[in-house]
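Need tokens for this chain, all 205 residues.
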Amino acid sequence: MSQKYEISEIAHPRYPWLHRIRALSDVRSGVVKGDLGGYVQNEDNLSQEGTCWIFDDAIACESSFVDQQATVSGTAVIRGSALVSGRAMIRQNAVVDDHAIVMDGFVKAQAHVAGNAAITASSVTGAWPHIEGFASVYGDVCGSVFVKGTAVILPGVAINNPTKDSFVVENNKVTVERNYFRLNGIPQNPNKQETKRNRRSEVER
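Here are the structure tokens for all 205 residues:
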């Protein structure tokens, strides 16, 4: 298997056992051969397959692993035995720690995902969670769920949203956000839906 990156000689200024990665091929949009990425402890932290990448000054260390299409950027840190996979995006100063799993989720700002947390997309709608602010997640969050501010999802707590609405967890309260049509119970015009289907069929032909 050809390698997509190598570990360079450039050490982290504070943690010298971590080194920057360097692309050996064009990995994804915005990452071409020769580009430097973030820091890893060893090759077990970032898969040589897929389009996953560590950007900027982000870190993946200890026994953590980043694979598939996932990205880690800013000064985010992945550590412990955490797994960041799927289409997960970890940005800014976020931390994914312990045995946490982030699949198809968006974690940013000062958010912390730890313990045995699992951040996953809904198998029904395909929507994924957004964890931001100073939120801490130790439980399971699935679907269109926004965890904001200083909200805490405790271990053993599961929020699974299989609907098209969005659940917002903030100040330890849960609210629901609906779009205009769903909020007001406005029926969709079946003729317009039929027109869209016909257009798709014409394109397919």
